[in-house]
Amino acid sequence: MTDKLISRNYDFIDTMRFISMIGIVMEHSSPFLGMRFTNFHDQIIQTTALQFIKFGTIVFFILAGFLIGDKFNHYTTKQYLGRRLTTTFKPWLFWVTIFIVLFFIDQGVRFYKGSPAPGFSHPLDFLLNRIHFIIVETSFWFIINFMLCITILLVFRKYMYSLVFGGILAVLSLFYSVNLYFDWMPTGHTTALLGFVFYLWLGVILHKYFDEFNQWINKQSFAILLSAVLITFAISCAETLNLMHIGSTDALNTLRVTNIIYSFACFLFLYRFCNFHAIERLKPRSMTFGIHLLHHILIIIFLPMLLRPLKIVYTNETAWSLFFMQFLIFILIYSVTYALVYYIRKSKKWKWAVGQ
Hints:
Elements: H1 3-29, H2 40-51, H3 56-71, H4 77-112, H5 118-121, H6 123-137, H7 141-155, H8 163-182, H9 197-208, H10 210-217, H11 222-245, H12 257-273, H13 277-280, H14 284-307, H15 319-345
Helix pairs in contact: 1-3, 1-14, 1-15, 2-11, 2-15, 3-9, 4-6, 4-7, 4-14, 8-9, 11-12, 14-15
Family: Belongs to the acyltransferase 3 family.
Domain Acyltransferase: 11-342
Protein name: Acyltransferase family protein
């Protein structure tokens, strides 16, 4: 394979990562999150609205694994982890701190207005609660989980390309899929710390067999790959509706078997047909990490400030209203986040805070 072809495909990885981040931000900002409908018609609308963007997390891990496969060839284990701590963990810690400060500012406003403010009455408990919330229940969990996944791959580096090792990781992931039906442990994808290592490993394997993958994927037609996406989408929706029917508290979990297959289908389709040159103008390589870090802060802290004066309460809205609201809120959150990251990156002093 020529250097030109390799370069073009690596640019396409950046494009795919950018598209995946769009799905992740839309999911996190969706008014459907946490809603539990009893009407089947409303459940279909909710499921459809959330399922079509559920490919983002798994695709993101595969892409990260692909890039790791490239870096592993150029860095020792110590060098790679050291580099990650500087370029990834340092910005993460900075924005976690900003997140906590904003929570306390909000508590200060509540205290000033005479409203209950546990941040002032029980500051230590409030601090620990907010740290737990940020790390476990927001997008900031990804970096912790990502670093854990990388560490596991590095610890077992000598088995990196072993299919047996990959099989063990696949079983760990499927355990969380089965757990959705039996509730052996908490089902949230943020607690599935070992469930995503397989997809990182899969990206590493993809990098190793990149030439063979390209030869195969280029033979696949638009109709075949689109059909795979649509069929797996329908099956994923069906499983979600079934989980809702049996009373699951996490019916849209990322690690549902059908969503895993749907994510694979989306990965193949995006890789083959979605190399949009217009996205390259948005500088996906330099913007994606910053968008990941900042978007949930806007959703949790600032979005309620906008919705409150408008008297918008999600539980009072119809499913169709929430459906259209999902796209409007996404456009708002994504555009503001993008603008913030863009201007932060223009500062030589602060650009480290959104990645290099």
